[in-house]
Amino acid sequence: MNTSIHYDTTAGADRACIRESIANYWNWRSSSFDKTSAQQQVWWEAYLAAIGENKQNKVLDIGTGTGFIALGLAEHGHQVTGIDIAPEMLAHAKNKATLRGVEIDFLVADAEKPPFSPKSFDVIVCRNLLWTLCNPEQAIKNWYQLLQPGGRIIVSDGIWQHSTRKTLLQKIKEYTRTILRNGVHSYSLRFELAYRSVKKTLPHFNGLTAKDVESILYICGFSNLSRHDHIFANNPYPKDHSSDFFIMAGIK
């Protein structure tokens, strides 16, 4: 099992600063992420269904986090590589893979420009990642090059923030309750502080609709798009999270 680091050294100082700020937050979240992330087994089962093939595939899990989708795919025979910007997230992923006896390569790398040769993978997957990217369209163009002809991309995302005055007041009340209950180290407050200075550089900070991603995938060259969120019998997110989520696949 390999864990190594590869960043795009051509990125400018501003981009490096944004990357560092985001990585620091997710490093901090790594110890509690598995306790707060939504229905992990349901998610990797959904991705397995979206892959829809019995053969072994070379899969790249971009923004793998603590690796629960990568682990599920690897345990079902796929050859998986997981990348993430946060080393502490990958440390948890590596530990879980070791405990479960699963071989996965983990790499600290920038999601927008993964360090792999063209046509290296059969499938690329990501979950709730696009909203965190400075240039998601360019990222998906780069991912397109990494796929074999006929390869498949599977992405999920949703609308996570609502910017009306009413929801802002609700958010302030929620933060106040959270601080009173959990102190200043609550992850919702830390999230707000971590992203306060960088969210203006993220074009989809509030999230993306299925139509947004459908448009990006077509622009980047994917076809035969299909939705797979119907696999869920119920919304996998808590009530205070998005009900407007999707899983979408496309073919190169």
CATH topology: Rossmann fold
CATH level 1 class label: Alpha Beta
Taken in chain order, the helices and strands follow as EHHEHEHEEHEHHHEE
Rg from alpha-carbon coordinates: 18 Å
Fold blueprint:
Blueprint: E1 3-6, H1 13-36, H2 40-51, E2 58-62, H3 68-75, E3 79-84, H4 87-100, E4 105-109, E5 121-127, H5 136-146, E6 147-158, H6 165-182, H7 187-195, H8 210-219, E7 223-227, E8 245-251
Parallel strand pairs: 1-4, 2-3, 2-5, 3-4, 5-6
Antiparallel strand pairs: 6-8, 7-8
Helix pairs in contact: 1-4, 1-7, 2-3
Polypeptide structure, described:
The chain is α/β, with parallel strands linked by helices and 252 residues long. The chain has a single domain (3-163, 203-251), classed as 3-Layer(aba) Sandwich (Rossmann fold). The chain has helices spanning 13-36, 40-51, 68-75, 87-100, 136-146, 165-182, 187-195, 210-219; strands at 3-6, 58-62, 79-84, 105-109, 121-127, 147-158, 223-227, 245-251. An eight-stranded mixed beta sheet has the order 1-4-3-2-5-6-8-7, sandwiched between helices. Helix 4 (87-100) links the parallel strand 3 (79-84) and strand 4 (105-109). The longest helix is centred in the first third of the chain and has 24 residues, at 13-36. The two termini are 29 Å apart.
Summary, kept brief:
By secondary structure, the chain is of the alpha/beta class.
Labels describing this entry:
252 residues, alpha/beta, 42% helix, eight-stranded mixed sheet, Rossmann fold, 8 helices
